[in-house]
Design brief:
The protein is of the alpha/beta class and about 280 residues long. It has helices spanning about 1-35, 50-65, 75-85, 100-105, 130-140, 165-175, 190-200, 225-230, 255-265, 265-275, and strands at about 40-45, 65-75, 90-95, 105, 110-120, 130, 155-160, 185, 200-205, 215, 220, 240-245. Strands 1, 2, 3, 4, 5, 7, 8, 9, 10 and 12 form a 10-stranded mixed beta sheet that branches.
Amino acid sequence: MKKNSIVKTTVVILTVMIVALTFMGCNKKNSADTSLKGTKLALAGSTSMEKLCEAMSESFMEKYPEVEVTVEYTGSSSGIEALIKKSVDIGNASRNLKQGEKDKGVVENIVAIDGIAVILNNGNSVSSLSKEELIDIYTGRITNWKVLGGNDEAIVVIGREAGSGTRGAFEEILKVDNKCAYAQELDSTGAVKAKVASISGSIGYISLDAVDSSIKSASLEGVAATEENIVNGSYTLSRPFVMATLGDVSSQSDVIKTWFEYIRSEEGKKIVSSVGLVLPQ
């Protein structure tokens, strides 16, 4: 009897402990879910940030299925304008913020560093340009590839539309703001890449992570556009990927704070690296 009593008592205690732990676990899960359940997170802006945003939002929603993340690719300036109007939670910009934007309370949160690749048609025999040559091409002083040792063929200068973060960063780095002689101004990274791939004498610029075999990336001052060269500073055409907020991240809603915590986690850092971007220092 005594032995049976001990066994019964032990079983009761274990049962109570299991129920208590289960209850605590459920409460913890429900508590974690409560602040995010049914929430939405809206981002808009840079087309160059599409690959990063798609990978990050997909992974984030797998971890936090109670959150719906939507991203629109409207261009950097449009994204910041949408943020200021409070029609989105985060404005994506592939450039540093302008002072006028900061004056309106927009805060620059750099989540990655991207290289800007100068791209050429695969049939172009030129493979390297100096910084001065690139400036001369985009400002219209050099108009034929034969001047650079290439074919006797007119240079078709392709660029992004006004308001593009890629264009803004490219022109600012080269100090050619409002001086470029564009033959065509296109509204997305994909459009620039497709145009350069289809026109033999064309030149353009796109995000480094968008480079593929349909075009070739030109070296600049003999330095290839690679992640390693961006990190060590030898490749000079690089710019920040910014996820801007109205006010500091610490003052944002739980879902926005959770988003930035995720980006800065080890899991988030792996995603940044996986899409060919460099982690900010």
